[in-house]
Amino acid sequence: MNSPVVVSNLGACGLRLTLNRPDQANAVDDTLCNVLLSALQEAAEIGARLVVLDANGKNFCGGFDFTGVDDLSEGDLLLRFVRIEQMLQLLWRAPFVTIACSHGAVFGAGADLVAASTYRIGAPGCRFRFPGYRFGIALGTRRLGCLLGEQKAREILLANSTLAGVEAREVGLLTHLEERESWDSIITTVRTSIEDLSSSAMSDLLANIRQDQIADDRDLASLARSAAQPGIHGRIAVYRAAAAESRKN
């Protein structure tokens, strides 16, 4: 059985983590989330300086994997969302530089993965959407606000907007919009730029620049409250039906 995340060495300085569920649009199920969380923890433990996050297949990540969701209890669903938030927080708080390389559909938890990264590269044709509030899940909101500013993040979330790559670059969700052939050059430039930083200096720099030092527990509490609202299965069913109808039109 193939691993949902392929871990490979990125020279002496770090790791490449490749989402590997291409037939499911790399949607985030429980296994992918746990493997990615463990890989990020390992990267911190071994003193990695750079982690690149990319994906196999036509899409970077289609979001939360709803497969079998009707068979999960509300408690199990809550735990899955909590684990995703914990994984995103670890990525956002990482003591190393992260580069997300995205293409195709970048939705939901996939868009949150990109938003939590230090550098955010998109291929032409990529598109982003943050639909969690459509089924009542408060995930990643503060991080999006940090990147885009409160007003722009508010507008995107209220309208459930789909951002094409050009607009994502304009609003600051992406730091680069380049053909995939150029990605290795960007990664090399970033790697070279941090060579003269000690691990402790880089960790301090990344931590001190953030504006939400005490927000993790509040974000987790907000997510838990949203997921614990009665009727989560019904909200998801309504959302999925609306999404399926939209794809027909």
TrEMBL record:
Domain of life: Bacteria
CDD domains assigned: crotonase-like
Pfam family, one: ECH_1
Classification via InterPro entries: ClpP/crotonase-like_dom_sf, Enoyl-CoA_hydra/iso, Enoyl-CoA_Hydratase/Isomerase
Annotated family: Belongs to the enoyl-CoA hydratase/isomerase family.
Name by which UniProt lists this protein: Enoyl-CoA hydratase/isomerase family protein
Taxonomic source organism: Methylobacterium longum
